[in-house]
Design brief:
This protein is α/β, with parallel strands linked by helices and 339 residues long. The chain has three domains: 52 residues, lambda repressor-like DNA-binding domains (434 Repressor (Amino-terminal Domain)), CATH 1.10.260; 128 residues, 3-Layer(aba) Sandwich (Rossmann fold), CATH 3.40.50; 127 residues, Rossmann fold (3-Layer(aba) Sandwich). It is built from 13 helices and twelve strands. The strands form two sheets. Strands 2-1-3-4-5-11 form a six-stranded parallel sheet, with helices on both faces. It starts with 5 loop residues before the first helix and ends in an 11-residue tail after the last strand.
Length: 339
């Protein structure tokens, strides 16, 4: 869907582009009946009264959009997106003076509506798509609108946009190898929502790595919140035999797992080893300091912003792979308990 321009409206209304500009901006110099005709045509063609009229000239708006589809209670406690946004902003400011328009939604239909409104109202030049899912309706909508976009997550065929991704399986294998070396033979993974593509990639890597290491795997899915991580931890530690190590999909879940284990009478790391995915300052202030799989999230965001700016500029952009995750062993992993 090509963006509506002043020339399009002028052609349909049978007036000059100057008259259209005057009418859309509420300026004098155009007859009232002509103004009404121009505004009616613009509204029928999808222009919104709140739109920046300069965008109708075909110029860029100087903004890109990011919709975070997470419940507010989860997003408020999770450092990942703040680090990601900081990376995006580091690329936008000095290079282009492009602004980031950020909106939060915990409903997929609402998110789709935001993209439609942004594009119809000429608020953004392109968008970043995160938390990619199976059967993701955003791909079709972006293609239908003709909205420039970059997807952040595992590459998918048929999306008609570049992907910025990291090889998450590398981090999973490093974590399992570390735990295997310490003698653990029963390991649980408390993962994020199972419909997310990066969760599925990590799940597959976890099962494969555990099988290769001769480890019995437990797998539960949660919503990235500390509350659900605590419930999952209680369930896992009540099993007989129980896992002797937990691999959590974010730092908040890992900290919650540590607290829950202690409430149940287990020592970390003597009775239970704990690993967090995505290192953060939170991992460094708990005691013992958390062993973590670290990614350069800010660089991930910077690469995504750079790719989108180039797409908006009309360049052909290939998929970009950011640096692989690395494991940083610390105080929450130790030799597996005997027996």
């Amino acid at each position: 869907m090509r963006r509506l321009t002043i020339a399009d409206i002028a052609r349909e209304a049978g007036v000059s582009t100057g008259s259209v500009s005057y009418a859309l901006n509420g300026k004098p110099g155009v007859a009232e009946d002509t103004r009404e005709r121009i505004l009616r045509i613009a509204a029928d063609r999808g222009w919104r009264p709140s739109s920046a009229a300069r965008a109708l000239t075909g110029k860029r708006t100087g903004a890109i959009g990011l919709v975070v589809d997470r419940p507010a209670r989860v997003l408020g406690s999770e450092p990942f997106f703040m680090q990601f946004v900081s990376g995006v902003q580091s690329e936008l400011g000095p290079r282009s003076r492009v602004s980031l328009m950020l909106q939060v939604s915990d409903d997929r239909e609402t998110e789709l509506g935001i993209y439609r409104d942004w594009w119809a109202e000429r608020r953004v030049d392109g968008v970043l798509l995160t938390d990619l899912r199976t059967e993701d309706s955003r791909a079709e909508l972006i293609r239908e609108l003709g909205l420039p976009a970059v997807a952040v997550g595992p590459p998918q065929s048929g999306w008609d946009m570049p992907f910025v991704w990291s090889k998450d399986a590398v981090g999973i294998h490093m974590a399992i190898e570390h735990l295997s070396f310490l003698g653990h033979r029963s390991v649980a993974r408390v993962a994020g929502p199972k419909e997310l593509l990066h969760t599925q990639e990590r799940d597959t890597a976890f099962r494969t790595a555990a099988q290769e290491a001769g480890i019995h795997p437990f797998l539960l899915h949660a919503d990235y919140s500390g509350e659900e991580a605590a419930r999952a931890t209680r369930s896992l530690l009540a099993k007989e035999p129980r896992p002797t190590a937990l691999l959590n999909d974010n730092d908040v879940m890992a900290v919650a797992a540590m607290g829950t284990a202690r409430e149940m009478g287990f020592d970390v790391p003597d009775d239970l080893s704990v690993i967090a995915w995505d290192d953060s300052p939170l991992c460094g202030i708990v005691r013992p300091v958390l062993t973590a799989v670290a990614r350069n999230i800010a660089e991930h965001g910077r690469l995504a912003a750079d790719a989108l700016l180039r797409v908006v500029a009309g360049e052909h952009v290939e998929d970009l792979r950011s640096p692989d995750p690395v494991l940083t062993p610390r105080g929450t992993t130790a030799l597996a308990p005997r027996g």
